[in-house]
Amino acid sequence: MGTERLNRPTRAKTTGRRAENRRKTECLRGGPTPIVAIMTQPRVLVTGSAGHLGDALSRVLRGRGYPVTGLDVLDSPSTTVTGSITDRELVRSCLDGVSAVLHTATLHKPHVGSHSQQDFLDTNVTGTHLLAEEAAAAGVGSFVFTSSTSAFGRALTPAAGQPAAWITEDVAPVPRNIYGVTKTAAENLCEIIQRDRGLPVVVLRTARFFPEPDDTDDVRQAYDDGNIKANEYLYRRVDLQDVADAHLLAMERAPQIGFGRYIVSATTPFTRDDLGELRTAAPDVVGRLFPDYEAEYRRRGWRMFPGLGRVYVNAKARDELGWAPRYDFRHVLDALREDRDFRSPLAVAVGAKGYHAESTGVYTVR
Ligand SMILES: NC(=O)c1ccc[n+]([C@@H]2O[C@H](COP(=O)([O-])OP(=O)(O)OC[C@H]3O[C@@H](n4cnc5c(N)ncnc54)[C@H](O)[C@@H]3O)[C@@H](O)[C@H]2O)c1
Q1: For residue 102, which of 118, 134, 206, 252 sits 20 to 30 Å off, Cα-Cα?
Q2: How many of the other CB atoms lie within 10 Å of CB of 166?
Q3: Which of 102, 106, 184, 346 to mutate to test the pocket of ligand 1 (most atoms within 8 A of CB)?
Q4: Residue 363 and residue 212 in contact, taking contact as beta carbons nearer than 8 Å
Q5: Domain at 11-350, CATH from 3.20.20.70, 3.40.50.720, 1.10.10.10, 3.20.20.140
Q6: What is the pLDDT of residue 264?
Q7: Helices (H) and strands (E) in the chain, counts
């Protein structure tokens, strides 16, 4: 699909656009629905539409009948406007007639070594701030910001001898790098814009869903890629389909929520009582909870990690967003037993895109 530059609205058009966006927001949240709105779903702006998540969201939204504007610096089948979220005039034009924004565009962890801190500030902080400001000005009814569990940073690694960390939304972030710093700052800017200007905002602190190989050399060398990802569903991974579902629910519920921050990760089988043993003897805990896991892992020559340092808890997202993630460690084991792919069809369809235009080690070509 080619790219198209949308017509830039005039200032005079902006007031009418605001009223139109508010009307469409009613439709988004299932409120009073004028006849004309019944015929069309409200338009959604997806930023980062060439990326893993942006592409997935564009596919799911279009499948449900939503018109989608896909904005990315990279052209792609899901991108309808090629340009940057830091271009205010372009962003303004992209918001024309839009009722909801799903903001996934980012520089992230794989870019820490290849991009400057200023690049991170420009895209993640200035870009998000500008986008949220313009969304508020346009009367957008729902703004979903994809953040990351990386925002928790050093809080994810307890001191030696301590139990594994139980990570809920109440844990204070201690960012570890420029990615975490900028994601946390962008979350806080969104919160201010919600408070000061009434833009409904939901922040989703999302766990890892990338299909690319692990970013840690010794982990990658010690375990099969499938083994690593299967293990991670116990405490720190989530399937792309479940991430997309959480975004759509957040989009629908943002007007009632006002501002909310949620962890989006597969449902963990662990409880707080497991945390001490998890740190030093994870295979014992997993064996008790899943008596069939050892035989399946043995059949494949796979191993559980000896100890786990943190557990992401998704209870708040399930309770308040009505999110019901389907891809957890039980699902993984059942799929493995039947020699099926444990990824969702959406994750398989989107596949691996890489994170750089040139080879930079494990994160290669886009
Ligand atoms: N991939 C993961 O495992 C993971 C884990 C936790 C959180 N997240 C979050 O999920 C979101 C999506 O991640 P992803 O893996 O799909 O990322 P991705 O790199 O595949 O996609 C991000 C897209 O944003 C685009 N982009 C970058 N700068 C831009 C700009 N200035 N203007 C417009 N577009 C720009 C990129 O070209 C890219 O297509 C991100 O916000 C990320 O922080 C991802």
Answers
A1: 118
A2: 19
A3: 106
A4: yes
A5: 3.40.50.720
A6: 98
A7: 15, 9
